[in-house]
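Long-time lurker, first post. I've been practising inverse folding by hand and with some scripts of my own, and I keep getting stuck on stretches where the structure tokens seem ambiguous. Below is the full token string for one chain I'm working on. Before anyone asks, I'm not after the true native sequence, just a reasonable design that respects the backbone. If someone could post their per-position residues I'd love to compare against what I wrote down in my notebook.
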């Protein structure tokens, strides 16, 4: 299996992986992003009936995947190697994962169309931001989570097991397990199983 994880760990890449401020225009990082985007483009062009070819391409793109995984085209990510996905995963069309930090997704997770999972964030100070400096915070999505269409999950969020997120939500803070949550900002409405 080809790996996207080719650059030496050190310098800007090490800062990125450690959640520190780093230069996103670093040539090694630009090369890794370019390779991931090429592979995503190849994945998005594979016929839906070519299931094994699609799975093998996902193995080249992503850091770790379960045996039963479906991501409908189009799919885009920044690096790929920071994404770990469990068993029985399904993502509908137009999933975007910006993964300069780790994205961990558990088992039996369903994601609706047009969703974004964004670990990347930028300094508030424009002078620092305009230098191409950014940082990233990891995202964790537990087991048995259902995420409706057009949901944005922002840096540093953890979503607990069994939680359901309503369509169109912006998840800016972590959510507990076994709740129905929705809105902008996304907030728990009630526990699952409650009346």
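-- Answer (accepted) --
I ran through it position by position. Result:
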């Amino acid at each position: 299996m080809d790996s996207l994880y080719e650059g030496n760990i050190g310098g800007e890449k090490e800062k990125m992986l450690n959640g520190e401020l780093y230069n996103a225009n670093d040539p090694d990082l630009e090369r890794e992003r370019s390779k991931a985007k090429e592979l995503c483009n190849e994945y998005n062009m594979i016929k839906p009936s070519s299931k094994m070819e699609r799975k093998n391409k996902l193995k080249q793109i992503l850091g770790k995947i379960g045996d039963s995984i479906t991501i409908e085209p189009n799919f885009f990510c920044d690096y790929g190697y920071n994404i770990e996905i469990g068993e029985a995963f399904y993502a509908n069309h137009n999933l975007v994962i910006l993964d300069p930090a780790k994205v961990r997704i558990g088992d039996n997770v369903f994601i609706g169309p047009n969703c974004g999972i964004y670990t990347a964030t930028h300094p508030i100070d424009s002078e620092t931001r305009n230098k191409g400096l950014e940082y990233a915070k990891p995202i964790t999505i537990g087991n048995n989570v259902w995420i409706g269409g057009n949901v944005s999950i922002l840096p540093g969020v953890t979503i607990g097991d069994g939680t359901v997120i309503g369509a169109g939500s912006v998840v800016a803070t972590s959510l507990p397990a076994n709740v129905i949550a929705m809105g902008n900002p996304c907030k728990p409405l009630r526990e699952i199983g409650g009346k």
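A couple of notes from the structure itself: Helices lie at 11-17, 27-45, 51-61, 126-129. The chain is about 20% helix and 30% strand. Happy to go over any region you disagree with.
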